[in-house]
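Can anyone check this?
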Amino acid sequence: MKSNKKIGIALSGGGVRGISHLGVLKGLNEAGIYPTKVSGTSAGAIAGAMYCNGYKPEEVLKIIVETNYFKFMRPAISLTGILKMNSVGELFKLYLKHDDFAQLQIPLTVAATDIKKGKVIYFSEGELINPILASSCIPGMFDPIVIDKRHLIDGGVLNNLPVEPLDGICDYVIGVNCNQLPEETNIKNMKSLIERSVIMAMNSNVYSRKSKCDFFIEAPGLGKYGVFDIKKAPELFQAGYDRVQRFIEENPAILELAKDN
């Protein structure tokens, strides 16, 4: 039985680490917990869109492993990015044929950042794929996505856990972060220093929203995985699933969300 409560789930960004969200969703569904609204940033927007479209978490994992959408990216002739995401949009059209928020089975909100105005933009209606691309547009790596003359980049820059679209609408909010950093005693090179610093900054704006969540799920140590480490997809999925099992054991109150009262 699905709960009659309004349950919102906010999914963070985090590159390939976002695959762990699928394991979390699988675990929650097995416990009888189903969202009535989903919000997501970047990888969380992608996982959220596929899930809200009706794909089961295991089906989304299979699609990711088989297609490896990173190979669809093309070089950009631009001063604002080294890659462009247009060809990735063609891939999304294979699985989100309607390209329309209104056609999703579960309402979804996607967060992106307006780089010129320095503010978060939320999308929940109209075309679906371009907002997903914008939300996933890592600054400096990808050309900004232009929607209605707004130049948009990764939503995680300003909001990597978009709980705001769920606040006041849902009875309960579950936040899911996929970037927890293990302690590091030896920073080996500049690359690892920069990567760790970026994840710390992303987590800062996640943790500032933690108090808005009734439940906060975070698989340990996922920050050690690279943003594009697609070969680790099954491992990441399992990490999210395992964390939910443990979380339910430690926080049995979450099972109240699975009951009709």
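Reply from J.R.: I decoded it. The first strand starts at residue 7 and ends at 11.
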